[in-house]
Q: What sequence folds into this?
């Protein structure tokens, strides 16, 4: 499958280039960065530390998408909205790992998914998607006397909070409870907040150092706590998930899919 990496000079972009190189059935057919990026003109493989691939980083996605079958996108919400439109026009698989997506960005992905396969997830790892299924199950089993808190820690350069994964886990817990997350989430507590609202799902974000990604869903009840946790140990966890998603998406009907669909976890 011919794959393009957008944001090819980023932390995930470089990891994606490496993973494509290591994956049978996948080939790097293009690498995109924004105009003005200092990476333009560089070989994507050299930048990723795998040696020369002959694929130079360029800033015009149109001719690159026209020759590809899929695009792997871990960039920014604005860039992802733009790439969604272009990928839909080219009818190629769009794997979206970008987090911090607003409702309007999700609406653009939904519109693109009418014409092409879009696979979007705040976390591409097996472990986190399994954790989400477990959080849904635990939340559906316990009553409101168990308070739910989602805690995450990431590296100092992460720009969005709560993380996409924290929101995915919060959404799973809300589904388990049978309530909409939007009406029940408590974010960014500071000052005299008053007592915790019954039924709230709380979020707390820590930032520092080089932490790749750590998440816990805490169910705090009377005199006991259940803590479900996941720790990412290497970014290749996410890039391998993304390449697997692209290969899975090839030949599927247009639509908006999740990593749970790719991993066969949607029904558990
Ligand atoms: N779903 C998942 O499993 C995972 C999701 N992520 C998410 O992926 C995203 C990227 O993370 P990370 O790699 O750490 O971030 P980086 O900032 O390292 O990478 C993003 C890259 O995209 C580039 N970029 C920005 N705008 C454009 C554009 N218009 N066209 C092309 N390239 C562009 C940036 O360039 P420049 O730096 O010059 O601005 C940068 O090189 C984040 O939202 C993060 O949360 C991360 C890991 C796993
Ligand atoms: O920005 C990151 O690094 C990560 N972002 C994703 C998120 O927001 O959850 C996934 C992973 O935790 C790493």
A:
């Amino acid at each position: 499958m011919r794959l393009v990496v957008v944001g090819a000079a980023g932390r995930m972009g470089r990891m994606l280039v490496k993973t494509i190189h290591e994956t049978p059935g996948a080939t790097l057919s293009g690498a995109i960065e924004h105009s003005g990026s200092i990476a333009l003109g560089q070989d994507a493989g050299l930048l990723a530390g795998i040696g020369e691939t002959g694929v130079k980083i360029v800033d015009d996605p149109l001719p690159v998408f026209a020759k590809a079958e899929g695009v792997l996108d871990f960039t920014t919400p604005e860039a992802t909205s733009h790439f969604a439109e272009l990928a839909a026009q080219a009818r190629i698989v769009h794997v979206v790992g970008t987090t911090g997506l607003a409702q309007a960005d999700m609406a653009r992905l939904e519109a693109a998914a009418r014409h092409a396969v879009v696979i979007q997830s705040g976390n591409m790892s097996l472990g986190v998607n399994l954790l989400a299924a477990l959080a849904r199950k635990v939340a559906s089993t316990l009553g409101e006397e168990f308070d739910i808190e989602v805690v995450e820690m990431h590296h100092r350069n992460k720009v969005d909070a709560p993380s996409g994964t924290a929101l995915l886990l919060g959404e799973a817990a809300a589904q388990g409870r049978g309530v909409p997350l939007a009406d029940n989430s408590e974010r960014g507590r500071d000052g005299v907040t008053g007592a915790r609202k019954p039924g709230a799902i709380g979020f707390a974000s820590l930032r520092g150092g080089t932490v790749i990604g750590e998440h816990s869903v805490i169910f705090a009840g009377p005199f006991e706590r259940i803590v479900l946790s996941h720790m990412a140990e290497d970014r290749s966890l996410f890039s391998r998930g993304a390449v697997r998603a692209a290969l899975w998406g090839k030949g599927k009907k247009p639509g908006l899919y999740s990593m749970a669909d790719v991993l066969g976890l949607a029904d558990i």
